[in-house]
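anyone seen this seq b4? input:
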Amino acid sequence: MSTGVTVDDAVVDQFAEFKKASNKNIFIIYKIDNDTKIVSETASGETEDFNAFLTHLPENDCRYALYKMDFTTSDGRPSTKLVSIAWSPDTAKIKSKMVYAGSKDALTKVLVGVAVKITATDLSEVTETLVQDACRKFN
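predicted toks r here
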């Protein structure tokens, strides 16, 4: 289902910077602005951790997020993967859930190179351990 929501050009530029190894940001949170455009809402600093990231996911509204997850592969090598998270809590309004679900493809098309994709409806589905496990499946 297409909703007509587009991705802001600044999101594409920010993503190009974010995926560079020299970029120290850990995460980016995106929102749909005025039901028309996906825009960046928050970008982390280099010292924020996964728990800080979780505090940026609203309790009663949907968001998209990108996270640089550091993890150890099953054979013991340190690695980093870009993880796309579609946050759609059960407590969000139905309209918000529908607009975010229908617009996810627009964002996914511009986030080239993100292999790990997670959809979460509550915090128990987006724990650091679960995200790291999802990353290991792609190594």
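The longest strand covers residues 63-72. The chain is about 30% helix and 30% strand. kinda curious what u guys think
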